[in-house]
Amino acid sequence: MKRVIDTRGMVNVGGIKVNGSTKKFYKEAQIAKMEDGWTVCLDGRPIITEDRNRLIVPTASCAAAIAYEWDMQGENIKPFVMPMMSLAATAIDVDRKKIVEKLLKYMDTDSLCYRVESPAALKRMQKKYWDPIINYFRDEHGLEVKVTSGITSLSQPVETKLKLAEFIDDTSKFELACLKAVAEVGYSTMLGIAVVHRKVSVKNAYNAAMAERLFQVRRYGEVTGPYGHGIELEHPRLHISSAINFLSFLEDDHAFSFGREIELSSK
Question: Are the CB atoms for 164 and 107 separated by under 8 Å?
């Protein structure tokens, strides 16, 4: 029998304020198996996204990771510390064409291809963290990737752009959301693709995306306090690590154990 869900009983999370001022209105989060994947429920009510789409993810691990974020909310719901939920909602709600168009725009301005001539310490950092990613595309895929220094602009070969576009086109909607998240942090489509291809660890992806900012902190020191470097440094780490973890949950349905699976009633 086909399972039918009464949409009137669903929870539309679109009304939750991004500033974290919405009071928590549920006791616990659960996961539930659907015919086309897994969903997350709040007190037994399935979540729908801001655009009123069902929140359906491919594996129990993905659903459990999202449910855990909902479960860990305190008195108020803070969407900005729910990166897994954000990735899933982006994959489900955002027009794929718009994401792809934005990623393609990065190709000639990809940060990994623009190096400094000095200071020498930053030049070494860029080489250390950026060259392995560039070499992945050169060595394993035979692509010509141009690199420049200073303020000289460049244009990547047409063949390279077409192949990178093909890599993007081959992603699932959830992989594309992860690619987008990483690319936006590092201003690099190639970094995002390398992450989706499972070629970069969290540590190396973070160092690649944040090389210049990390250099500044190491050279001049870290500013603490409410106007310091804390959020500037940790926000990108959160999004990169969440994207890479989300990718692993797409592959391994036993990568995350939550223990609150419920059975939704059939009609």
Answer: yes
Q: Whole-prediction pTM value? A: 0.89
Tokens linked to 113: 């291809």
Question: pLDDT for 61-72, tens place per residue?
Answer: 999 999 999 999
User: Which residues, 6 or more positions from 87, have their beta carbon under 8 angstroms from its beta carbon?
Assistant: 174, 177, 178, 181, 242, 243, 246
Torsion of CA 203, 236, 75, 48, to 10 degrees: -100
- Determine contact, residues 7/41, Cβ cutoff 8 Å: no
Which ranges constitute the DSSP H helices of 83-188? 83-93, 96-105, 120-135, 141, 158-169, 173-186
Burial of residue 163 (CB within 10 Å: 0-12, 13-18, 19+) is middle
CB neighbour class for 130 (10 Å; exposed up to 12, middle 13-18, buried from 19): buried
Amino acid occupying residue 113: C
